[in-house]
Design brief:
By secondary structure, the chain is of the alpha/beta class. It has three domains: about 150 residues, 3-Layer(bba) Sandwich (FAD/NAD(P)-binding domain); about 170 residues, Polyamine Oxidase, Chain A, domain 2, CATH 3.90.660; about 90 residues, no CATH class. It is about 40% helix and about 20% strand. Strands 1, 2, 9, 10, 11, 12 and 18 form a seven-stranded mixed beta sheet that branches. The protein has a seven-stranded mixed beta sheet with strand order 7-6-14-15-16-13-17, with helices on both faces. Strands 3-4 form a two-stranded antiparallel sheet. A hairpin with a 3-residue loop joins strand 3 and strand 4. The longest helix has 20 residues. It is globular, with a radius of gyration of 22 Å. It starts with 11 loop residues before the first strand and ends with a helix. The structure holds flavin-adenine dinucleotide (FAD). The site of flavin-adenine dinucleotide (FAD) has 39 residues, from helix 1, strand 13, helix 15 and helix 17.
Length: about 475
């Protein structure tokens, strides 16, 4: 008989959190800390969602989304998790760009970007300062009609090289394009510019493991391998969930699953007003990703070539090309043994943005061949930066949008949630159904490790208010 992953659960909780991405985890932790009874249900066998890692033979361990996040994650972890978790976060200093328009290494912060823009791109200091200040002061309540394209045109007219330097890393980080509202760019870019790019010493496994321990310490009931099939709604309010075929009652539900799946699959359109459903149907998902995981043989070493390499052979920044199956741009994350101080091994993860539809409809043979081609072209691209690297590799594997869909249940394998319009709908759920909340990557601003964790805090405050008589 198969194991009952729900054994010992209570018949009723204050809150059920569906999904254990960084938003779901952080939301659950805040609520548990406030003495609410919390049941966290995750369909996968490990917590973390896209903050994922996996082990392979030969002693390899790969991080899926640990390329870098802004310094704000330290404060978020200290305040809403523990000082020990915050102390695992360290800066990455070698961020390298290499494309037909420019090639340099930077610490990816305001001072260094100002220097590069002045010295290399010959932009007057006043323009640079004005641009940084405007981007930094943008907030959610600002004018949302100006696009990123218009913002760049205002401060750096006709400079597609400057646009590439400022935009390409952000497009990798959250799938945004020049046609998004400028505020989404301003907020995310300024978060990075404040002090550069950060990572976790110890790896994603240690980080999520520490969060899991803290959640349990705070009294949350945490269950993996528990797929939520349905949110039960009665008389306009949430009454419980059905998970692995079992009904569990609760006063509030926080879904960390994909926003569209939450509305249309877990709850059902008939429970929402017609106008809300129309707006929800119009939400655009963000793109997906491909990755190649490359394991260096135990005992082999590679020289330091930088931590994060934004590489491209495309003549100019082009968000359509950036997602194309015919890959021209790749981000390489090089994990040196310092990432996991107890290990002496190296690994490399190559990431590209991708369109779900380019991969979803291939025959089995075509899919297999395309993955092989993805691996082959990535190895060839890597050879440029680490000559002879093929001889040092003893493990390689690829992930596609279908892989991301399978492991997270995100519609179309969306890597960064939804476009901007998703945020309003995500925040509007409780006005439609009492006790129903969403948290997780939406609206570009709330995506990434920092955005997702911070949205978890915002949602936990809203849930707490709802439950307080
Ligand atoms: C390839 C790649 C690289 C990235 N690199 C970076 C990076 O370097 N820096 C950065 O800041 N961000 C990065 N990101 C983005 C970042 O990982 C995500 O934005 C963030 O981790 C998402 O967190 P989340 O809370 O939205 O939920 P997710 O991580 O999407 O997790 C949702 C969880 O809900 C679970 N779930 C869904 N439906 C159900 C259900 N019905 N029942 C039970 N469980 C369910 C899923 O299994 C999953 O665990 C990257 C993303 C990808 C794909």
């Amino acid at each position: 008989m198969s194991r009952d992953w729900l054994e010992g659960t209570k018949p009723e909780y204050d809150i059920v959190v569906i999904g254990s991405g960084l938003a779901g985890l952080t939301c659950a932790n805040m609520l548990a800390r406030n003495n609410r009874s919390v049941l966290l249900l995750e369909q996968h066998h490990q917590l973390g969602g896209l903050a994922a890692w996996f082990k392979r033979k030969g002693g390899h361990i790969f991080d899926v989304s640990l390329h870098g996040f802004p310094v704000g994650m330290i404060k978020t972890c200290r305040k809403y998790w523990t000082p020990e978790i915050a102390n695992m976060i360290v800066q990455l200093k070698g961020i390298r760009f290499d494309n037909p328009q420019f090639s340099f290494t930077t610490t990816f912060d305001r001072d260094d970007f100002t220097r590069i823009l002045q010295e290399r791109f010959k932009i007057p200091r006043d323009n640079i300062e004005n641009f940084f200040n405007v981007a930094r002061d943008m907030n959610f309540y600002d004018d949302q009609t100006m696009t990123v394209r218009e913002l760049f045109e205002k401060y750096f007219p006709g400079r597609d090289d400057v646009v590439r330097m400022l935009m390409e890393p952000i497009a990798y980080a959250n799938g945004s394009t020049l046609d998004e509202p400028a505020i989404t760019y301003g907020i995310v870019f300024s978060n990075f510019m404040s002090k550069g790019v950060y990572t976790v010493r110890g790896g994603t496994d240690k980080f999520i493991g520490a969060m899991q321990a803290e959640l349990l310490k705070n009294g949350a009931d945490v269950r993996t391998r528990c797929l939520v099939e349905k949110v039960i709604v009665e008389n306009g309010r949430v009454a419980g969930v059905v998970t692995n075929g079992k009904a569990i009652k609760c006063k509030a539900v926080v879904s960390n699953g994909n926003l569209l799946s939450t509305i249309f699959k877990l709850v059902g359109a008939k429970y929402f007003s017609e106008s809300f459903v129309e707006k929800a149907k119009a939400i655009r998902l963000n793109n997906s990703s491909c990755q190649v995981y490359i394991g260096i043989k135990k005992g082999e070493r590679i020289d330091y070539i930088g931590d994060l390499l934004f590489t491209s052979v495309a003549e100019k920044f082009d968000s359509v090309k950036l997602r194309s199956k015919n890959i021209t741009s790749r981000t390489f994350s090089i994990y040196y043994p310092e990432t996991r101080p107890e290990s002496d091994m190296y690994s490399i993860v190559a990431s590209t943005n991708a369109n779900y539809e380019d991969w979803a409809n291939l025959s089995e043979q075509e899919y297999h061949d395309s993955k092989k081609e993805l691996i082959e072209s990535t190895m060839a691209a890597l050879e440029k930066y680490i000559p002879g690297v093929r001889d040092k590799i003893d493990y390689v594997e690829a992930a596609t949008p279908k892989t991301f869909q399978r492991y997270t249940l995100h519609e179309c394998g969306a890597s960064f949630g939804t476009k901007f319009e998703g945020l309003k709908i995500s925040m509007g759920l409780p006005e439609e159904i009492r006790g129903l909340f969403h948290t997780g990557s939406v609206g570009i601003i709330m995506s990434g490790w920092l955005g997702a964790a911070n949205y978890g805090v915002i949602t936990s405050n809203n849930v707490d208010k709802y439950l307080t008589p």
